[in-house]
């Protein structure tokens, strides 16, 4: 068979000239060329398949010439009908060469051979989450399959043009394939060699220790009875899901029923999707950590077991994700599990690691194209709604973390997903915003969160404190307008309608606390300066009013039998810090000093009742140390002490850097309190001065939490750690103190 040159209308070439043989493209594979045998000129070729060498079959790099840059020679029988089809064929051949790894036999842990591969039914990804009304087999709920036909070119029905994603983004796809990453989710399993692990490393670095929950057998032991699992799921659906909306309740219930009925509730079952098990543990952890004490006891969990299981279940969530290699095997389950875990992570002391997992979940969601679920996205209603809900939650958590990282991962400019639909799960019918549904709270909070990246961009574009403060005032007004004019009626102080869901009163208080905290976060970079610079008096008044609102609502929360949300504790600690800083910058004779101190002491009294919360533990410790300084101020003790000095006008100034350094030194495990100083402290206690020591106020059963969580030891803390930029003087005392209270109050 002779070779003939192919004319390319879009390329410059001499169609009538004879092509030099040295520039002719070889179609035979490298192995056949080396053996000097006839090759079928396919990848893999017939000879390599017969020899069992299909995994190494491919063209030599020197023999490949891109049809875009040179004239490709093809036998007449292999000639494509058009130049565009020829380019597509070339790119597919290149992809086939780079995708040889999946065809290689790789020994893996049998327990990890689950068939889940979620895809979004749009141009680039499909979520195979079954609709409750779908006639498909129940097994499809937990086990997903991929269809090789999905890689075929797609034809636009209207124009008849090929819309293959290979042609649309060929260069990027090839580059990402070379890296072992996926540019477009439509191309299924593409992983780097190091991602394939042998059985000896399938469990990672985890040991067989019972305490580390690394074994699937240990994970099985952590599961309570099916009755208790359903109690936890039911309560989460009724009392917590409105707050985060990270999963679709009907689908999750169907998956749980299948797990217990068809898979016997056995985690070791090879067909069980470990990423879904991670979601199950995440849901149970949130319920156990957030339920009132009386409700947990009704479920059969006493205090000691509750504190143990809540931490073990959270660890099990991460263990399941790691065992499933969730950063390689991308599914929406990992995004749902991590987003749901936020509600318990902060209280249990896992704030630092949770922020890392959220970043991973965000990238996974983008790889699944959850950020491109616009109005024209393909897929059924339930599938698209599930993707939009978890994406909206990831956006909110990322943007609410901006004040603490001074950056964000999700740029609103590069997302086209619509917000979740305001609908009930049982019918999915869109309703007016005035009607409360399971998505109502998250929808409105997402609107508030969207302000934060705009504020950050505005602040970073300014060069002077004056223009930066203009941005603060601008977005302060924007948030106030949104909270007053756009707030749904059921989240206002209007009379409660008996037909509304039970969560509406809890949502009102949560929104009041969260929106007040967001006002503080908008002013955060000028808050420290507001205590000394009259130019920022508006910031001081605003933050004091917001702090009082937070504590007022927190007092009402504890009187209700609702869920214990971490924002109640975290934001009340932040509010108390502001009130104490205000006292330390006032004359002791002012009436506000006594008022603010009483509010802080009321808050600490509530925090002492929080038995399973690292936020409360850290908050009590820090607020107690600040109260010592306040007591010295109110008692007229003007002698030089930790972080305090007399100004020229006679008022007492408080040095936050000095306090932070002294506080860290005192909390060092190796720190020895001088005898004279201890005597002064004992004397102050005898005189009734409020001195709060964490070891005296934290129950003994919390001692192990201090060592098991991913917190930073104060003695090991770098006292020169960087804080977010301040307003004028480069020292943001408020955020320094927040850092000490809880290293990242990162999410809403």
From TrEMBL:
Residues 72-81 have a biased composition (Low complexity). Keywords: Nucleus. Its main location: nucleus. Residues 67-86, 123-156 are annotated as: Disordered. Transmembrane segments: none annotated. Residues 140-156 have a biased composition (Polar residues). GO terms for cellular component: nucleus. Residues 28-57 form the Zn(2)-C6 fungal-type domain. It is found in: Nucleus. CDD domains: fungal_TF_MHR, GAL4. GO terms for molecular function: DNA-binding transcription factor activity, RNA polymerase II-specific; zinc ion binding. InterPro entries: Sec_Metabolite_Reg (IPR050613), Zn2-C6_fun-type_DNA-bd_sf (IPR036864), Zn2Cys6_DnaBD (IPR001138). Coiled coil: none annotated. PANTHER family: UNCHARACTERIZED TRANSCRIPTIONAL REGULATORY PROTEIN, ZN(2)-C6 FUNGAL-TYPE DOMAIN-CONTAINING PROTEIN. This is C6 zinc finger domain-containing protein. It comes from Dendryphion nanum.
């Amino acid at each position: 068979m002779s070779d003939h040159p192919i004319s390319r209308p879009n390329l410059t070439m001499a169609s009538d000239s004879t092509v030099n043989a040295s520039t002719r493209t070889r179609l035979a594979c490298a192995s056949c060329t080396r053996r000097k045998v006839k090759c079928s000129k396919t990848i893999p070729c017939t000879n390599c398949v017969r020899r069992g060498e299909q995994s190494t079959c491919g063209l030599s790099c020197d023999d490949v010439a891109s049809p875009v840059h040179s004239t490709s020679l093809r036998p007449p029988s292999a000639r494509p009908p058009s130049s565009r089809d020829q380019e597509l064929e070339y790119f597919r051949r290149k992809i086939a060469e780079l995708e040889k790894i999946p065809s290689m036999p790789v020994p893996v842990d049998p327990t990890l051979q689950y068939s889940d591969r979620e895809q979004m039914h749009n141009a680039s990804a499909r979520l195979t989450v079954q609709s409750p009304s779908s006639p498909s087999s129940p097994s499809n709920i937990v086990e997903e399959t991929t269809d090789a036909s999905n890689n075929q070119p797609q034809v636009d029905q209207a124009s008849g043009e090929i819309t293959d994603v290979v042609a649309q983004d060929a260069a990027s796809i090839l580059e990402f394939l070379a890296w072992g990453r996926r540019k477009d989710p439509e191309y299924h399993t593409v992983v780097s060699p190091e991602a394939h692990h042998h059985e000896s490393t399938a469990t990672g670095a985890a040991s067989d220790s019972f305490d580390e929950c690394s074994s699937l057998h240990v994970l099985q032991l952590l599961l309570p009875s099916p009755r208790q699992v359903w109690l936890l799921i039911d309560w989460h659906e009724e009392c917590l899901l409105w707050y985060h909306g990270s999963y679709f309740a009907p689908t999750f219930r169907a998956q749980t029923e299948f797990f217990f009925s068809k898979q016997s509730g056995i985690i070791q079952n090879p067909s069980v999707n470990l990423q879904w098990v991670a979601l199950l543990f995440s849901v149970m952890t949130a319920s156990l950590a957030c339920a009132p004490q009386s409700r947990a006891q009704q479920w059969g969990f006493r205090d000691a077991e509750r504190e143990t299981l809540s931490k073990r279940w959270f660890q099990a969530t991460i263990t399941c994700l790691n065992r499933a290699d969730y950063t390689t095997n991308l599914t929406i389950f990992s995004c749902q599990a991590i987003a749901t875990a936020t509600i318990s992570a902060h209280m249990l002391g896992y704030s630092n690691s949770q922020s890392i997992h959220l970043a991973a979940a965000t990238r996974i969601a983008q790889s699944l194209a959850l950020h491109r679920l616009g109005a024209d996205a393909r897929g059924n209603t339930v599938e698209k709604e599930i993707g939009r809900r978890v994406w909206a939650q990831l956006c909110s958590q990322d943007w609410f973390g901006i004040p603490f990282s001074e950056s964000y991962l999700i740029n609103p400019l590069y997302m086209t997903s619509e917000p979740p639909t305001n609908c009930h799960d049982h019918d999915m019918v869109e309703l007016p915003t005035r009607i409360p549904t399971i998505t109502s709270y998250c929808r409105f909070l997402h609107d508030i969160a969207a302000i934060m990246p705009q504020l950050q961009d505005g602040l970073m574009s300014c060069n002077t404190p004056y223009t930066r403060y203009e941005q603060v005032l601008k977005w302060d007004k924007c948030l106030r307008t949104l909270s007053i004019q756009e707030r749904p009626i059921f989240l206002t102080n209007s009379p409660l309608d008996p037909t509304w869901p039970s969560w509406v009163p809890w949502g009102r208080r949560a929104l009041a606390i969260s929106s007040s905290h967001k006002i503080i976060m908008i002013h955060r970079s000028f808050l420290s300066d507001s205590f000394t610079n009259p130019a920022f008096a508006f910031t001081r008044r605003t933050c004091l009013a917001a702090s009082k609102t937070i504590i007022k609502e927190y007092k009402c929360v504890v009187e209700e039998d609702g869920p214990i949300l971490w924002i109640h504790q975290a934001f009340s600690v932040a509010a108390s810090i502001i009130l104490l800083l205000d006292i330390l910058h006032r004359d002791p004779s002012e009436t506000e000093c006594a008022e603010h101190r009483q509010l802080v002491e009321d808050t600490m009294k509530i925090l002492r009742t929080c038995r399973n919360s690292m936020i409360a533990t850290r908050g009590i410790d820090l607020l107690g140390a600040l109260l010592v300084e306040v007591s010295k101020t109110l008692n007229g003790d003007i002698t030089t002490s930790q972080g305090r000095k007399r100004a020229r006008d006679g008022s007492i100034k408080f040095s936050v850097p000095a306090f932070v350094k002294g506080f860290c030194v005192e909390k060092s495990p190796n720190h020895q309190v001088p005898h004279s100083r201890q005597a002064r402290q004992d004397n102050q206690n005898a005189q009734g001065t409020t001195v709060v020591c964490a070891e005296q106020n934290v129950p003994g059963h919390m001692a192990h939490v201090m060592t098991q969580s991913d917190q930073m030891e104060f003695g090991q803390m770098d006292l020169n750690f960087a804080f977010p930029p301040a307003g004028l003087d480069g020292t943001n005392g408020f955020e320094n103190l927040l850092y000490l209270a809880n290293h990242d109050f990162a999410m809403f």
